[in-house]
Specification:
Number of helices: 18
Structural class: alpha+beta
Largest sheet: 9 strands, mixed
CATH superfamily of the largest domain: Bira Bifunctional Protein, Domain 2
Number of domains: 4
Helix content: 40-55%
Distance between the termini: 63 Å
Strand content: 15-25%
Low-confidence stretches: 437-449, 541-545
Shape: globular
């Protein structure tokens, strides 16, 4: 088995699939375009949904990439051997081209051939979809693994909760998958321990999704006209496997960052369970925060949406840095080390270095003020504790309002000789999550990245709005920083340093409606990025589409690089009405608008 560095694995993966006729495309932004169903790009499929649904991709039908991803659902698991909030997903794609047999054959070749990774085949196990009322058992994948040389006893059928990849939103392309696991050599947890068990013996390193279906509603699936392959190999986990280390934090991807934390804290990484956890959380959270801040559509800390997640990551890392006695602004030095390590691979990090470091410093200052207020509130809470115990609701209030992790509340309580109702805290936390999830479901129930007429019209209107802002405010540096489009309304974030006046908002609204009233055709052309720029197109998301891009033109008014979908004529949009203009984050404004028929 080859002992590769993270850089070597990235390049080897892309070289392998390039040799199989795949075009290499760059990573898309961590902030999804026109998809209100998710806050971050959590998988390689998100930027490619239009092409999975049948749109033609400029680079062809075989693609490969290394996609930046953020997942925060397991944030409380960070600190173990394998969970990270930011990660890189190596992927290869078939858009209506090859299917299961080729995909599995190439996965097997890349994993086991000594020219590539050279993993002993006896160390690999596989899971396949067992079938249910929605779709049949995936015997094709099972049989193909056996044909390639897999031990049949190493192949397990599992239900939909294990071996089915759902759509990026509530509806969309989906299908069964086959997952690849590496036997870590750890003892089995029992006689039934097998691939898919979460005891730690089997580590999932690759997932091949076969998108055969389109989910059109709750429990409703239709055959997909274009069958696709979507694969994902986690870079960190695979490198840990190849380097034979205990955790992803012991690989070369983290070694320099971990070493710096040791120097700043004057602690040894593995001197105790507590330092292991703290080092890992700081390393993971600051790496993730650096990538979010440094993204080409990067956000800044706030109390809503992506900014809220970012703030939580930064403040959690600061808290653990305080536990290790890392001096103030130590997280800024750690972020700088992250940029040094990844800047040549993701140039946007180097380009935004000053922004990343200044925002981290600013947030640490804010948190220091919040912490002082929180300590005062804690002292009041402790003084009113009944029977020497802080109740769970009060502990959650400290967490929710002042950013106090339960561990901090417990430490402060211990110093005063009192305890905390930890179970009550977790119950209050669970109730909060339940309400938040219900609110998110309500908020996004019709906010799908779909082709509904209303959604398409509002998406088209964002192009007119963007250009109108540049014209009215006489500022060609204004750029889109995010959008959130449902069938009912659009939300458009753009770079601008101040609040717009009522007169400016009226002028923007009037200019958009003037262009709608001109009944201009909306046309699409494919061209290179250089050609698009030469024609004056705004290159908002050019890094995501590769060498050739789609350029949408609206008469003589707007020309933008975009993935679609769009209306056919501005006259089809309706009457544009701005409902609200507000701050989104530092240097970013937000407009909410609707279209009235």
């Amino acid at each position: 088995m080859r002992n590769l560095s993270s850089r070597e694995l990235r390049q080897l993966y892309l070289d392998f699939f390039r040799s199989k006729g795949h075009a290499v495309i760059p990573s898309a932004s961590l902030i999804p375009e026109n998809d209100p169903t998710v806050l971050f790009t959590t998988a390689g499929m998100h930027p490619l949904v239009p092409y999975l649904m049948g749109q033609k991709h400029p680079a062809g039908t075989r693609l490969t990439d290394v996609q930046k991803c953020v997942r925060t659902g397991d944030i409380d698991e960070v600190g173990d051997t394998s969970h990270c909030t930011f990660f890189e997903m190596l992927g290869n794609w078939s858009l209506g081209d090859y299917f299961k047999k080729e995909s599995i054959a190439w996965s097997w070749e890349f994993l086991t051939d000594e020219k590539w990774l050279g993993i002993p085949k006896e160390k690999l196990s596989f899971t396949c979809f067992e079938g249910d009322a929605d779709a049949p058992r995936d015997t094709v994948s099972h049989d193909r693994w056996v044909e390639m040389g897999a031990d049949p006893s190493h192949i397990v059928y599992l239900p939909k909760k294990n071996n089915w990849w759902g759509p990026a939103g509530l509806t969309g392309p989906c299908g069964p998958d086959t997952e690849i696991f590496y036997d870590t050599g750890r003892p089995a947890c029992g006689p039934d321990c097998k691939a898919g068990c979460d005891c730690g013996k089997y580590l999932e390193i690759w997932n091949n999704v076969f998108m055969e279906y389109n989910k059109v509603g709750e429990g409703k699936f239709e055959p997909l006209a274009q069958k696709n392959v979507d694969t994902g190999m986690g870079l960190d986990r695979t490198i840990a496997t190849l380097q034979g280390v205990e955790s992803v934090f012991d690989t070369d991807a983290f070694s320099g960052i971990i070493e710096l934390i040791g120097k700043l804290s004057h602690h040894s990484y593995k001197e105790s369970d507590a330092t292991v956890k703290a080092f890992r959380i700081i390393a993971d959270h600051i790496r993730c925060a650096t990538f979010i801040l440094g993204d080409q559509r990067g956000v800044t800390p706030s109390n809503v949406d992506q900014g809220y997640i970012l703030r939580r990551l930064i403040r959690r890392s600061i808290r653990y840095a305080m536990q290790l006695n890392i001096p103030r602004y130590g997280i800024v030095e750690i972020a700088s080390a992250v940029i040094d390590q990844y800047g040549d691979i993701y140039p946007e990090l180097e380009e935004n270095r000053e922004k990343v470091l200044s925002e981290l410093k600013r947030e640490e200052n804010r948190f220091a003020d919040t912490l002082k207020k929180g300590i005062k509130e804690f002292n009041k809470t402790a003084a009113n504790a009944q029977d020497g115990k802080i109740d769970g609701i009060s502990a959650f209030h400290l967490y929710d309002t002042y950013g106090f992790p339960i561990e901090l509340t417990m430490e402060l309580a211990q110093e005063k000789g009192i305890t905390v109702d930890v179970d009550g805290f977790h119950a209050a936390f669970a109730e909060h999550q339940k309400k938040s999830q219900a609110g998110a479901t309500q908020r996004f129930k019709s906010g799908l990245a779909d082709h509904q007429e209303a959604t398409t019209a509002l998406h088209s209107a964002t192009h007119l709005l963007h250009k109108a802002l540049r014209v009215v405010l006489n500022d060609d540096t204004i750029s889109q920083k995010g959008s959130n489009i449902t069938a009912e309304r659009l939300r458009f974030d753009f770079s601008f340093p101040r609040k717009l006046t009522p007169e400016e908002l009226k002028a923007v609204e009037d200019l958009v409606n003037e262009q709608i009233g001109r009944h201009m055709p909306i046309t699409c052309e494919e061209m290179t990025v250089a050609e698009a720029k030469a024609q004056g197109a705004i290159g908002l998301f050019e890094s995501k589409y590769g060498e050739r891009v789609k350029v949408y033109t609206m008469g003589d008014f707007s020309k933008e690089i975009c993935g679609g979908p769009h209306a056919q004529n501005t006259g089809d949009l309706g009457h544009f009405v701005i409902k609200k203009e507000e701050a989104s984050s530092s240097g970013v404004r937000r407009i909410k608008a609707i279209l009235e028929k």
